[in-house]
Amino acid sequence: MNGAREHWGSRLGFILAAAGSAVGLGNIWRFPYVTGTNGGAAFLIIYLVAIVLIGYPMMITEVGIGRRTQRNPVGAFKALAPNTPWWLVGALGVLTGFVILSYYSVVAGWSLSYIFKAIAGFTPEMAFDELFVGHISQIGEPILWHLIFMALCVGIIAAGVVRGIQRWVKLLMPILAVLLVVVALRALTLPGAGEGVAFYLQPDFSEVTGTTFLDAIGQSFFTLSLGMGAMITYGSYLKKEDTVPGNGAYVVGADTAIAIIAGFAIFPAVFALGLEPGAGAGLTFITLPAVFAEIPAGSFFAFLFFVLLSIAALTSAISLMEVVVAWITDEKGMPRKTATILVGAISFVVGIPTVLGYSVLSDVTFLGFDLLDTYDWIANAIMLPVGGLLTAIFAGYVWTAKKAQEDFNTPPSRIVLGNWYGVMIKFIVPIAIILVLVFGIIDVV
Ligand code: TRP
Fold first, then answer.
1. Cα→Cα distances 181→40, 157, 185, 397, Å
2. pTM score, two decimals?
């Protein structure tokens, strides 16, 4: 089982897998929402700058560390800095992947169940808030969907990098893109859609505050799946002759394009029906079903939407699982199938309290968060930024930006990293992450 390391069958295999990791719930609901509440196009401009200055340098750093070392995150840091505690950054990444997987699967399970609710039909008289709360506050059903989703991940990951991950992302990512465009076209052709487009695209600089910049930086980081070794792991299945700057650019470009199109799917629909673009899970599972209930053939489009949301979640979740599985197989020598089943089973169990947080464990809160939001906050506000910060410091100062830059620039590719890479990874990226980390904590505590 521990023979030669698997490699992507083609460049497209890597790009689709990494874009599949990046495109997730963050693109479909979080990006449109954050954009809308931060001045529309004004936020979009700041976000794009953050993607170029912070997201892209971090993306190539992670992918590059993976390609260079051909190892899981723990092994990668060990290979570049032997006999130092830097491997702990990789270990933090593995742990983070594990935590995110456990509750991401629960939310993905809601999405799966809504595929069937849409098939049963959405009608205008339905109370969608009660439908949603009624669903998540049950015990058996959400746990069953969580189990089904986790089993899908296990099935894909157990089959391997090429026969599992690559095979499925090649099928699923094009379907996701087509469904998103179909849903966006439906939304844009609704009467009254123009108001939503205006809300989304008219720059309103009066809404821009310090928080806008922090949101843009945080989103650029989260949406690209950075800070926990997912891109190190996927990068480790690149061959030495694959380019880092070029492949990284495709992944970042694809993720950004999908996020922007998602805004065109959500806002016109919400505004056409005079609804509020409210935050979070509520927008996806309460407001949008209400929108679909009102429009012609709405249940069909709701079905397409929840299929697309489930695909986005699945291709992200498999990258989370792969980080943990790669660590166990590389470092502990366990066969891939056994490792996958073990990781799936433990994450399933660890995720169960987040389901029960809406019923029997609803009294358990942390800083006012329910259990699912607690898992989410610890992972996103603490673990990912800390992991990303340490990775940037490692690349910039320990491996050194000069050596990293040289390594990433071989073999020569159309995009050549200049010395600006060092400026970004040593100064701009760490400062930006520290700001997000500090203000993110102050905001809540
Ligand atoms: N990028 C994913 C999204 O936009 C979420 C995410 C963050 C993620 N970190 C990750 C997914 C790590 C997989 C691996 O929804």
1. 20, 28, 6, 43
2. 0.95
